[in-house]
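Supplementary Note 2. Why include the ligand at all?

Several targets in our set were suspected to adopt different conformations when bound, so apo predictions alone were not considered sufficient. For every target with a known small-molecule partner we therefore ran a joint prediction. The input for DP6 is given below.
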Amino acid sequence: MSNLTATAVANANIAFIKYWGNRNDQIRLPANGSISMNLGNLFTQTRVEFSPDFSQDTLSINHQSIIGQPLVRVSAFLDFLRNMSDIKYTARVTSSNNFPTGAGIASSAAGFAALALAASSALHLNLDEASLSRLSRRGSGSACRSIPPGFVEWLPGEDDQSSYAFSIAPPEHWELVDCIAIVESGPKAVGSTEGHASAGTSPLQVARVADAPRRLELCKNAIQHKDFDALAAIVEMDSNLMHAVMITSNPPILYWSSTSLELMKAIPTMRRAGLPVCYTLDAGSNVHVLCPAEAAPLVESHLTAFPGVEQVLVSSVGGPAYLVEENE
Ligand code: DP6
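The joint prediction is reproduced in token form.
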């Protein structure tokens, strides 16, 4: 029996143009296209082993055994892979994040990208980059953007085949840095899967989706020309637009803490004073502060000193998901 084990690493990513809402929740066909940057310093490493000796799928994250909904989600994802393969064994999934748990950093993008690569390799499925991206998308939409390297665009597509992500610029194209301000952890946030499902209840979602091609174009141009001011304008606008949808959904979702809001006011002020910085927030209260690498030390020290910021995680642009050789 050949070895049915593989280990993969995938980076987290931060969206410049956000994915919010699906046209098909089942297979995660997004309402609009999105663009992100891989975060090379924040990653998940996942080992998957299929064996006839296991009685059921098991999942451990950071040495903790996980049951309930997260395991059901992983098992359903593995079922999809088992259907693509002749091998029907259950699996042991062992995963670890190199970033602090409980800091509100979403791990589903890195997690499902690493799981897709490790599990498909363990089953000897030999998938190319686009196929891996499509597969990851089914686990978590944003995970499809953690497969290719650098700056990545996810085409919304019209069906499974046409909805996948690819690199629009390699990591070395532009030395941008994401300084993530971890703010006081408030009450447990609404998960993004639940948020996507309610996006359509906001009267603003239709306008946000209709305007997405224009924002995607502006963002791509800013990346291509390394135009930080243009990037800052579209990234902040897109984040605000998504949060406008969130707070006008039924039920409303408000992810910001008071510190998030203070940072959203302070960062454009810093920019007007000459520091190249901009903010973007995902489905949580942490504030991602983007800047060119030269500005990162100063930005990091401003954020560390900012009242209410607990810690600052710093990441440069990351590469693609990759397989790790097993030492046997
Ligand atoms: C706000 O990919 O986490 O971070 O597909 O349900 O797993 P699921 O959602 P997820 O949604 C990400 C939402 C976001 C914006 C983005 O990353 O584009």
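The pocket of DP6 is lined by residues 15, 18-20, 28, 34, 106, 108-109, 140-142, 192-193, 196, 282-283 (CB under 6 Å). The radius of gyration is 19 Å. Comparable summaries for the other entries are listed in the accompanying table.
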